[in-house]
Amino acid sequence: MRFDPFREIEELTQRMDRAFGNGIAAQTARLAPPVDVHEDEGGLELTLDLPGVQPADIQIEAENQTLTVQAKRNYTRGEGRTAHRVERAYGTFSRTFSVPAKYDLTKVEAEFDHGTLTLRVPRSEAAQKRTVQVRTGGQLSAPKTVDAAQTTPATSDTPATETQNAEVSQGA
């Protein structure tokens, strides 16, 4: 088994918590669910694992280029039951993500399914790809895509420069 200093530190922290009686309270402070963040041309997608959390106990706030997710997982101990070990994290957590300005936080969508919260943050309109028309000879013409292998013969009526308009994409 390889030496993992982070695991050793975590185990030491857990032993200290148990020794000083901070069992459940200390685990509550460390409750931070794992998250996956993906990006594509449509925007960002954040996926958080929230097992045991009820949808009513999830709060999502989006403002000032930050996205905050808060959730609560309650611990219930039945009457007449003794807890010999409580390792799962309970309580409230808050996780904040900085979101670049090219994403529109006013259009965040959230979906909660089988303990997985998925947040979708679309790109803002200003950051969307768009087509720019190119003027040739002072005239605005419809954009066309020209294949580099394709040759267009010039006629006496139409100069070669006007038949080879190109589509220009401006990326975000």
TrEMBL record:
<feature type="compositionally biased region" description="Polar residues">
    <location>
        <begin position="130"/>
        <end position="139"/>
    </location>
</feature>
<protein>
    <submittedName>
        <fullName>Heat-shock protein Hsp20</fullName>
    </submittedName>
</protein>
<feature type="compositionally biased region" description="Polar residues">
    <location>
        <begin position="148"/>
        <end position="172"/>
    </location>
</feature>
<dbReference type="InterPro" id="IPR031107">
    <property type="entry name" value="Small_HSP"/>
</dbReference>
<dbReference type="InterPro" id="IPR002068">
    <property type="entry name" value="A-crystallin/Hsp20_dom"/>
</dbReference>
<feature type="region of interest" description="Disordered">
    <location>
        <begin position="126"/>
        <end position="172"/>
    </location>
</feature>
<dbReference type="Pfam" id="PF00011">
    <property type="entry name" value="HSP20"/>
</dbReference>
<feature type="domain" description="SHSP">
    <location>
        <begin position="36"/>
        <end position="134"/>
    </location>
</feature>
<dbReference type="InterPro" id="IPR008978">
    <property type="entry name" value="HSP20-like_chaperone"/>
</dbReference>
